Amino acid sequence: MNGVFITFEGCEGAGKSVLSEKVYQALLKEGYSVVLTHEPGGTKISDKIREILLSKEPKNSFALVPMAELMLYFASRAQHLQEVILPALESGKVVLCDRFSDTTIAYQGYGRGIDIQVLTFVNDFITGGLSPHYTVLLDTDPKIGLERSKRLSKTFAPEGELDRIESEGLVFHNAVRHGYLEIAKSHPKRVTVYDTSTATLVEILPQIIQQLLKVLQKHALSRNPRSRKN
What we know:
It is a single chain. This protein is of the alpha/beta class and 230 residues long. Helix content is 51%, strand content 13%. It has a single domain, classed as 3-Layer(aba) Sandwich (Rossmann fold), CATH 3.40.50.300. The protein contains 8 helices and 6 strands. Strands 5-4-1-3-2-6 form a 6-stranded parallel β-sheet, with helices on both faces. Helix 2 packs antiparallel against helix 3, helix 3 runs parallel beside helix 5 and helix 4 runs antiparallel to helix 5. The longest helix is centred in the middle third of the chain and has 25 residues. The mean pLDDT is 91.
């Protein structure tokens, strides 16, 4: 693998999508060849799975059970890896991904209560053990994050409402946040936590970009003006 894999993680409304786009633009200006993508989604097939995962179920229908939800996330990731992430890394590009394996541990492990060893085993099987070189974890109080989410225009829920995952109770979202912080403690060299409960993305963006440039310099990636956005 010749490229560098960077992921952005965090609870709902933490600001990952906005941040990843700003980092993408900044790295392009630095001359790096960059792919910006996201999970669940990132390919036509994965986006169809994303719609199932995030759309609210119609009334009087069965809710998506945790194990089915998990398998859909893994299916989306498998397709995403083969179509987007692995080819980009093999060609020496910087891959910026909004969510990846840490999301599975935080949401399905700590949030849903599925055995983390099982999650890790299946994830390693699907990814071939691929792990990000560096992860930006945006930490925010779930109450604050969910209020931010309500103010955003929605693809899978009307404006002012929350999608299927966002609509889970605070107990779930607090467990997810706890999971993320535990992941950061277990992987201090890979994961850096940035507080977005009080600080704005504008305030922390220069610090994040500076750190990411150090990561890229460490891997001695060549720079060129060509890039691609997914």
